[in-house]
Amino acid sequence: MARATGQPHGLHRVDDFALELALAQQPSAQHQLLTLLAPLEARPDLLVTLETWLRVDFNYAKAARALRIHRNTVDYRLQRVGELTGLSVATARGLQVLTAAVTVRRLRAALVVP
To answer: What pTM was computed for the model?
Structure first.
């Protein structure tokens, strides 16, 4: 679980992965969340931008540096994510759902969850 979520190796508490564990046990919710990201499959740059921005804790400057793009490009891409998914990173609900969807995507990729 630590590897799948990008956490350092070592001893972790179950509480550290409460969201991931809850999502891993809900195949129907996983499917629905992954469906929300489907429009981004044709635009991998948007998906990578979203994942990076989440990984750097919503820091536009850090995301821009990590992606080697201008900060405004990060903002533009995240707006496009909202347009394509119907979920804006500027709202609490949009951010929660997109974060959960990206988490499921990471779990599936790292743990090969059916």
So the answer is: 0.79
